[in-house]
């Protein structure tokens, strides 16, 4: 028996940011240390993601998690009792074995990721450390030297905004910022300026799923134009201080050969969509494009990456689904050059870390990501910092489930400074020069 021996595992049904049920798992260890985690949920799902356990039926549109809660309180609690929460690989291996499916559909990816993360959180608590620090310490690594560079949504779109525009996320990256805190400051000014410009035109109509402004635009490109004006109105220089990033989430409006841009009233083939995006990249300071083509359009992804991959991050989200195997295969094909690391797509922490290692071997940059249906859980910020992930994406700079993460980043920045004897940058240093294609 050690201080990280699992005594009990308990699940409860809680709520996510879309007002949908989700599962929280709480693990208690032998001498009272506790950890917990809440599963997030995506709206734009990749085909290869771990499958969620949802009850079906009438209640909550079929999205209930009673079965998942019962599984944790019964089968999983029994399996984990007496196991070592500090041995993450064994805990996750057990969960995978008990599930027994290739897509995690028996226990549910939501059930598994909440359990897996809760175990890590409990082990950290037993060591009286925040999770980011425990992740380092347990591997004998020194304290992190940077926080992830934020990628922050200004306009929502796609399935996060009822299809009002086709592009799913219009984001900014503070490519000129000197610190994590400054990146947030600048982005908050851009968000405020964008809201002001929208209000002046009578276009301000609330927010989308992740707190980005509602995309009340007449074309997909109009959002880019307004974003440029907002950056300038905030007194910042587009392309220097602040650059643009898009999540096209192309699988949501098309597949190989046929992409229907409803807002623009046109249908493009793979090269047509690629060409449109390359044109935008030439005319706007876009440094990052996620899922530019559909997850099944590998040839299109290869051609797009060949065209812009030297200067732009081509990020696989639905295209890679945080799978080590897919990252390896698609890196060989040169079908993208960066990866979104989204733990609930993988289903366990160990598999998420394996995906990150595969990305490192492939020379890909990584972006830790929350989901569009999220909660006050801040685990993703701890993983990003503890694992040296160089970027993070958790939605906009509004709404509690988003600010919970940014604010936790600020706390971690303070903790890193304290560890460095207060001499460090209390605003949170960012990854070193040479990390990103844009130079800083
Ligand atoms: C994405 C994510 C997060 P969702 O596509 O990148 O923004 O959205 O959680 O709906 O898959
Ligand atoms: Mg995405």
Explain what you see.
The protein has 440 residues and is α/β, with parallel strands linked by helices. It has 13 helices and 14 strands. The protein folds into two domains: 123 residues, Enolase-like, N-terminal domain (Enolase-like, domain 1); 291 residues, Alpha-Beta Barrel (TIM Barrel), CATH 3.20.20. It is 38% helix and 16% strand. An eight-stranded mixed beta barrel has the order 4-5-6-10-11-12-13-14, surrounded by six helices. The longest helix has 21 residues. The chain starts with 5 loop residues before the first strand and ends in a 21-residue tail after the last helix. The site of 2-phosphoglyceric acid (2PG) has 11 residues, from loops.
Describe the SSE topology.
Elements: E1 6-15, E2 21-29, E3 34-38, H1 66-80, H2 88-99, H3 109-126, H4 131-137, E4 149-156, E5 169-173, H5 180-200, H6 220-233, E6 243-247, E7 254-255, E8 258-261, E9 266-268, H7 270-283, E10 286-290, H8 298-308, E11 313-316, H9 324-332, E12 338-341, H10 343-346, H11 349-362, E13 365-369, H12 379-386, E14 391-393, H13 400-419
Parallel strand pairs: 4-14, 6-10, 10-11, 11-12, 12-13, 13-14
Antiparallel strand pairs: 1-2, 2-3, 4-5, 5-6, 7-8, 8-9
Helix pairs in contact: 2-3, 3-4, 4-12, 5-6, 7-8, 9-11, 12-13
The site of magnesium ion has 5 residues, from loops.
